[in-house]
């Protein structure tokens, strides 16, 4: 059996709450599919990785020339959306990132390798930015990559479609919800 980790990317108020600073109208469509994946991972044997984007108030951050200041630690936008983030489940961890990828300058690859994980299932927001960067770095770190099509989205539909096409062609597989649940069993 291949050991698997579910990586839930940026399920935070910033993107999912209507008052979030980076909210976009289709973002909430990922909520139920991601919840279903977390339940499947919890019922199965997969590790659950909750990824959050958090930045420090008042300090320079390389993302700022490309993006407005966002997800400031301790603020509403940086907090997980209701029901997401660590909940005291067995086999779940938190990874805080300051760049698009959950792997860049974090301990994620080290941790997953120490646990014997060979395959990742990725979900969350945004397909063409953080999900794609995480998938790319997962591949670069030697993991079999599976991105769950119905559990990712973006406010740039054409870029989201192109990102999923590239992921499926060059990085891993884009899978449906039922296939992803089976991988998490």
Automatic annotation (TrEMBL):
Gene3D superfamilies: Isochorismatase-like (3.40.50.850)
Source taxon at top rank: Bacteria
Keywords: Hydrolase
Isochorismatase-like domain sequence ranges: 4-178
InterPro entries the record matches: Isochorismatase-like_dom (IPR000868), Isochorismatase-like_hydrls (IPR050272), Isochorismatase-like_sf (IPR036380)
The name this protein goes by in its record: Isochorismatase family protein
Source species: Hoeflea alexandrii
């Amino acid at each position: 059996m291949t050991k698997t980790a579910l990586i839930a990317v940026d399920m935070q108020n910033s993107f999912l709450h209507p008052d979030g600073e980076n909210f976009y109208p289709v973002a909430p469509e990922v909520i139920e599919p991601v919840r279903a994946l977390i339940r499947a991972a919890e019922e199965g044997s997969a590790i659950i990785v909750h990824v959050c984007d958090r930045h420090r108030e008042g300090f320079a951050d390389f993302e700022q020339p490309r993006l407005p200041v966002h997800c400031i630690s301790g603020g509403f936008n940086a907090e997980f959306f209701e029901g997401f983030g660590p909940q005291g489940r067995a086999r779940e961890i938190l990874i805080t990132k300051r760049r698009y990828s959950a792997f860049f300058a974090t301990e994620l690859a080290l941790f997953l390798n120490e646990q014997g994980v060979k395959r990742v299932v990725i979900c969350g927001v945004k397909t063409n930015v953080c999900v794609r960067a995480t998938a790319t770095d997962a591949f670069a770190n030697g993991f079999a990559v599976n991105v769950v099509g119905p559990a990712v989205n973006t406010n740039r539909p054409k870029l989201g479609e192109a990102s999923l096409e590239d992921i499926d062609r060059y990085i891993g597989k884009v899978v449906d919800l039922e296939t992803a649940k089976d991988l998490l069993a």
